[in-house]
Amino acid sequence: MNPVVLSAPTIPLPSDQDSSGRTLGEEEIELLAQAIRTGTLTSTKGQFVKTLEERFAQQLGVSSVHACSSGTAALHTAIAAIDPEPGDEIVTSGITDMGALTPILYQGAIPVFADVDPKTYNITAKAIERCLSPRTKAIIVTHLFGNPCEMDEIMALARSRGIPVIEDCAQSFLTEYDGRYVGTIGDIGCFSLQQGKHITCGEGGLVATNNRALARRMFLFINKAWGYGDTKPDHYFLALNYRMSELQGAVMVAQLPKLEGVVRARIEAADQLTRQLRDLPGIETPTIYSKATHTYWKYCLRVDPNLVPGGSPALGKLLKEKGIASMPRYIQKPAFQCEIFQKRRTFGRSEFPFTLARPEALNYDPSLFPGTFEALDRVLVLPWNERYTEEHVNYLGTSTCEALARLRGEA
Questions:
Q1: For residue 9, what pLDDT band results from cuts at 50, 70 and 90?
Q2: Residue 152: which region, alpha, beta or left (left: phi > 0; alpha: psi -120 to 50)?
Q3: Rounded to the nearest 10 degrees, how much is the dihedral formed by the CA atoms of 252, 298, 156, 97?
């Protein structure tokens, strides 16, 4: 049998890895120049990072935002603010970046993985409840791909048990649930400013809260626990230097006013693609809760291998021949199957903090995670950014339709 090859020509899609898919421009260059001319590039003395924090707090409608050096730093800062005891447990998702998990281990806590809804790829209250124990210190909910978790049920569960909720909003800027921005519903919201996010300064993070005590501890943790502004400052506890530089802050002060337009453009393009693809056999377009808005960090298709021969890998392979760099599975395996968890490679040969864990907390048997494995087996993540035009979306939709037809032997 001859291999299936899609026809040329291809239309290059904008990429969030370079200027074709980013909103970076003269505004960022001008503010960068201003920062450099001041000669003050540390946020402890400058004004750009402070301005970013104030303006993002206003945009979210929270009392406090602090900037830090990465999305991973943001999660680490949030976890440190919760201040777990060694061996405490934090419930989280197995479909996430490792940068959202290693901070748990660095703080001496144990990640306990909840299963996900295979259609939204997000953890649910029902799955979280099965993971709770007297040692549960916090819950981390990851609003994956820009699609929010069902926060009503999760918050009701968390509040009934007195457990704080950290929202991982790295992929979900201005995503709404029931009229509220994610990152403002739980106790702490964490955001990433990495290259491929909705807005970017290359690397960077933000933490948001309405809790004064948590805000204070996060400010200190970002600053080596040094009490800047205190009458008798000291290094109050073990902490790191996670500060954002004024150069990053300058870029972000220019990026922030563009965020609403970025989100709007992504949603409009996604709606156009959904109209093209939603009735195709074997394909499901994004599942969104009735109370939610999806802000499309990426656009995900759910591919049924019973109706699409070869499933998402086969579809992704054909799209690649058209210059469309999709990601079958998103991640190749759940986080708990990586060596750091399977072989407990942490601090030297100590295996700490796994040595403090309950056996049940370290049970990664696949039978406990049917939704996680189904989600990864079926998902196809399409590239996405705010620079997609109608032509780009039509090309993506037409290419997907053509690939599906060929896989079914219809073309």
A1: low
A2: alpha
A3: -80
pLDDT at 346: 97
Instruction: Name the pairing type of β-strands 283-284 and 299-303.
Output: antiparallel
Question: If 0-12 CB within 10 Å is exposed, 13-18 middle and 19+ buried, where does residue 348 land?
Answer: exposed
**Alpha carbons within 13 A on the beta-carbon side of 317:** 11
Report the first-to-last Cα separation within the chain, whole angstroms.
15
Which is it for strands 165-168 and 188-192: parallel, antiparallel or unpaired? parallel
- The Cα–Cα gap between 210 and 183 comes to 10
Q: Which two tokens stand for residue 42?
A: 């540390």
Domains of the chain as residue ranges with CATH: 26-258 (3.40.640.10), 259-331+373-407 (3.90.1150.10)
Query: d(Cα 363, Cα 371) in Å, to the nearest integer?
Result: 16
Q: What is the pLDDT of residue 2?
A: 45
123 backbone dihedrals φ, ψ, rounded to 5°: -70, 155
Q: What is the pLDDT of residues 220-253, one digit of tens each?
A: 999 999 999 999 999 999 999 999 999 999 999 9
- Residue 9 burial (C-beta neighbours within 10 Å; 0-12, 13-18, 19+): exposed
Task: Give the mean pLDDT of 97-123.
Answer: 98
Mean pLDDT of 90-95: 98
Task: Give the phi and the psi of residue 274 in degrees, each rounded to 5.
Answer: -60, -40
Radius of gyration of the chain (CA): 22
Point out which residues pair with 202 in neighbouring strands.
194
The overall pTM is greater than 0.85: yes
- Could you tell me the two tokens for 78? 């949030």
361, two tokens:
């907390």
Q: What letter would DSSP give residue 63?
A: S
Rounded to whole angstroms, the Cα distance separating 338 from 101 reads: 11
